[in-house]
Amino acid sequence: MPAHLALEDYVATLTKSGAALRDAANDAGLRATVPTCPDWTVTDLVVHQGTVHRWATAHLRGDSDHDTTASHAEGMAAPDPVSWFSAGLDTLVETLHATPDDAEAAVFLRDAPPPRRFWARRQAHETTMHSVDALSAALGRWPTHSDAKIAPDLAADGIDELLCGFIPRGKSRLRSAEPYTILVRSDDTGHTWSVRVSQDPVVTTVGESGAPDSTFSGTAVQLYLTLWNRADDAVVEGPTAILEQWRSQTPINWG
């Protein structure tokens, strides 16, 4: 699962998406609900992302004693959770700049890149997706691809991380007693992935592999948002049950 963008691109995306999340959170207000994460308020969203940024920073710094529960409680108690979030983002960006390329740190996806690149990539996509959540709170609805200002190359990289890194893990819940294959096709960037779903862990092949039972297609941004369950912009061909199963079995949860 190689990282397709340069480290500097991931850090720039992290910074840009963090600012977008902050601005949308301020526009929506801390008590607003988040349509794409219906159990959350904007406060929950901001503190969650701030906690994850501090967790990522701790990994890069080798801080094995970092307590995410205490970090989350600190954010919830902060007089200004958005400022608390911004401080954690700044520290993460500074840490990524200061971390050497050969630094050792824990990673958690299949076939992950080296730790510095892994955490820059992971937090770029994490923060981008949660900036979309904040945007949904400001809009009061699920966003569309045109609402979110996301570059196609970043979106294609995020699809690859999801399909090749997240869902093939043994802990993934995407399973089916009757095997099937999904072809994911990005029409603007030219990327394709074949996702084989069965009772065993998902197997993702980069490129086309045999005749698919369902095809998810669209621009990279449409697919990025749809596959992360933040929009309904992709064109889905095949049994509707496959999309329904994707929606119910592929949420990425903090835990």
TrEMBL record:
GO terms for molecular function: metal ion binding. Residues 153-243 form the MDMPI C-terminal domain. It holds the Pfam family MDMPI_C. It comes from the Bacteria. GO terms for cellular component: plasma membrane. Residues 13-134 form the Mycothiol-dependent maleylpyruvate isomerase metal-binding domain. Coiled coil: none annotated. SUPFAM superfamilies: DinB/YfiT-like putative metalloenzymes (SSF109854). InterPro entries: DinB/YfiT-like, Maleyloyr_isom, MDMPI_C-term_domain, MDMPI_metal-binding. This is Uncharacterized protein (TIGR03083 family).
